[in-house]
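Input set for joint prediction.
Command: fold jointly, output tokens.
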Amino acid sequence: MLLDDEVFAVLTAVVIIASVLGVAMVVRDELGGERFTAIGLLDENCRIGDYPRYAYPNQTLRLCLYIYNHMGKPVYWRVVYKVGDNTTLPTTNTTSPRPAIAEWRGVLDHGLNTTRRIEVVVGELPVNATRVALIFELYTYNTAEGRWEYTGRWVHLYISIRR
Amino acid sequence: MVALRAHSTRRLPLLAVTLLLLACVNTTSVDAEGIDDLVAPLVGDLEELRRSRVDVSSLTSSLDEAVRLWESGDVEGAYRIVESVRFEVERLKGEAPRVYALHIARVTLTVLALLAIPPLFYILFPRLYLWLWFTSRRGWVVVRGAPRR
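tokens >
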């Protein structure tokens, strides 16, 4: 026999699987996959690791914000900075009740990230706080409803307060 | 009457400071809302264009630059960039249907080509194999009683 039937069947099966996988990849690209945003806090050199451990009241700290967009569309983002403690941290559904001290905005296309150098003042401290959390909450603008929405993503950094 | 006027005069600096503070607070909130009012509709347009598969990465970067300029206090520079983005968005809106149609055609052709591979393989591969088999043995001579290798 010139071409063995079993070999031909195996080759055909491989080709069918490859074809189906190819179609699945095209469809997945069209649907965009899982949609999410991400926020990260980096040190003043925009790297992970060398974070400040303490600060004096109203001292200015240099940090870096990292934002990533995987929403399948461009997003108009905003990060709100607050100072709280372990009782006033945000959750995935609610923001921190502490007052906003500063905020930063930007526009990011799908699949891209940005790092932004920021300076934050360790102010608006909770009463008698010796250890505070620098809280950064990520919001995106809902263009359909015309308002900012909390994404449920936040990052915080604990530092000690020296007086 | 005189006493009342004197009382009002003493409170005048306090009132002025209060008004000044209120003006500052009001200006800050207007600034923040101002950039939102400026950028948000354009972001909505960019979302729409991206849904039509138009490449908006450069426009997104420009808007980001405009927001940064606004935050750094260069309102005029921010306005200039926003206006250029708005102009480009309007131009791209006209091209969006054509870009989307081309994209749909490209995706459809890709899927059809991928789906066509198995039946084409089933039909063509045995024929191609046979053709190669016979071609590679074209010069062979059949000899009766020759020893098997």
